[in-house]
Amino acid sequence: MTVEQQPSDIPVVVIGAGPVGVTAALLLARRGVRSVVLERHQDIYPLPRALVVDDEVRRIIQAAGVGEGFAAMARPGNGLRLLDARHRVMAEFRRSGHGLHGYPQTSMFEQPALERLLRDELARRPESELRSGAEVTAIGTDTEGPVRVTYRDDAGEHHLWADAVLGCDGANSITREAVGGSWEDLRFEERWTVVDVRTPADVRCWEGVDQVCDPNRPATFMRVGEDSYRWEFRLADGQEQPVRELVAPWLPRSYDGDFEVVRETAYTFRARIADRWSRGRVFLLGDAAHLTPPFIGQGLCAGLRDACNLTWKLARVLQQGGPERLLKTYESERKPHARHVIRLAVAMGWAMTGGQDGAAALRRRLLAVACRIPGLTAAAGRDLSRPLTNGPLVRRHARRGLAGTHCPQPWVSADGPRTRLDELLGDSFTILTAGEPSPSLDALARGLGARVVAVTDLGDDGTLAAWLRAGRADAVVLRPDRIVMDVVPAGGHDFTDTAAWSSLLHTTRSTHPSPWAVEEGLPRSAER
């Protein structure tokens, strides 16, 4: 039996109900865009996989509506250390404390708990529907008109017609085949053994991630929960060793208490990026678009950044009649960053293994020396989210300017309950000013469907005013993902290049005021 649904019924089909797919559906729902999420499995995978997110991704989780729930399950981490073969510290990439985005710079968690949290939130959203046990078998390749998605379940074969398709279906993505994408190999492939353990033992750890740079047995170790730990080992071909022997350096001597191996499995870590991320309105996100070794904890982070970047643009096109070329900026903005993060992870992998050639020992000695250079490890720790480069939606004219960077997220009050900045501003564009806005900024805001907000009206701790001063800016225009699109320089009167982006953001239907701003009591003087 074949069932066909009418073309206008489903604006977006999301393929894959992992964290990236469900987050994308929630971000669309927040903007009033309906979606159907198709997942071939009946339930979430019960064992841990991803374990770490950074503060920028915590901000995305907040936008998805599960910030408080995630805070209850996550633990802050200290960052990352490089250890030598004798477990002596070579370098420390500390990412402790709260970052720019208002959250701990490193958070440890267990993926099944996050997935359950996201799915529970999805079930509460009337704009979204999850269909489990639904295996996608074909995706239409026409670049004009609605996209046909074929899937099968226990009831038979079904056809859906959607305005857009988001392929969040992992490394073996059928969506990548549909867009005609192929992998670009970034030259890293190693087979590792991953071990998840629960034990009450007094395991030696520093509440962060340890990378053991031993060419004979490189390893990764971290504490995940109160009594849960993750080890990863690269073993030589044919080499086998009991788990207790592998983890012995971290356990108390002669420990013989409870020790449960939750999972022991082999993974092949690869570094790859798809040569194209879309065709028409069919898009790749997460592992369907890029694969990274796990050594800097950015695999899931990269996928959630994909969802954040694409969903506001897609909502603007579908809901407000924005121009189609707005969607082209998804790949041009996200692909360079994904490639950068993968290269950092590969570099960390080489630091751990050293390679097997004659220069391996020299590289390890050079690494040890480099890690002692003042400021180098701190700079490397900040390099996970570089500013976007100049492009259609970022007018970056100064190397150290604010354009292309994220706006901080302090707590604000604005004559109402104390809340985080993003919850107050909602999902619209925002023009943030150091003082009273000029008439030209008011006019620009009306054309953009943006809010004009003076930082003096927000009741924060001075973070935003200090940020504008440090960036030598009198005003900035913030995109819905809170990236600075353009800047009014200090002493200036207008944004530097309005013409370059105004046509790209033109809409044929009126914008929707954000319910968050009304609920949180945005002051009348800040809403123009």
Question: What does the model show?
Answer:
There is one protein chain. The chain has 528 residues and is α/β, with parallel strands linked by helices. The protein contains 15 helices and 26 strands. Strands 1, 2, 3, 9, 10, 11, 12, 18 and 19 form a nine-stranded mixed β-sheet that branches. An eight-stranded mixed β-sheet has the order 7-6-14-15-16-13-17-20, sandwiched between helices. The longest helix is centred in the middle third of the chain and has 25 residues, at 329-353. It is globular, with a radius of gyration of 24 Å. The model is unreliable at 511-528 (pLDDT under 50).
Concise description?
This protein has 528 residues and is of the alpha/beta class. The termini are far apart.
Write the layout of secondary structure elements.
Layout: E1 2-4, E2 10-15, H1 19-30, E3 35-39, E4 52-54, H2 55-63, H3 67-73, E5 75-76, E6 79-83, E7 89-94, E8 106-108, H4 111-124, E9 128-132, E10 135-139, E11 147-153, E12 156-167, H5 174-178, E13 183-198, E14 209-212, E15 219-223, E16 228-233, H6 243-246, E17 260-274, E18 278-279, E19 282-284, E20 290-291, H7 299-320, H8 329-353, H9 360-370, H10 376-381, E21 411-412, E22 419-420, H11 421-425, E23 430-433, H12 439-448, E24 451-454, H13 463-470, E25 473-478, E26 484-489, H14 498-502, H15 515-519
Parallel strand pairs: 1-12, 2-3, 2-12, 3-9, 6-14, 12-19, 23-24
Antiparallel strand pairs: 4-8, 5-8, 6-7, 10-11, 11-12, 13-16, 13-17, 14-15, 15-16, 17-20, 18-19, 21-22, 23-25, 25-26
Helix pairs in contact: 1-4, 1-7, 7-8
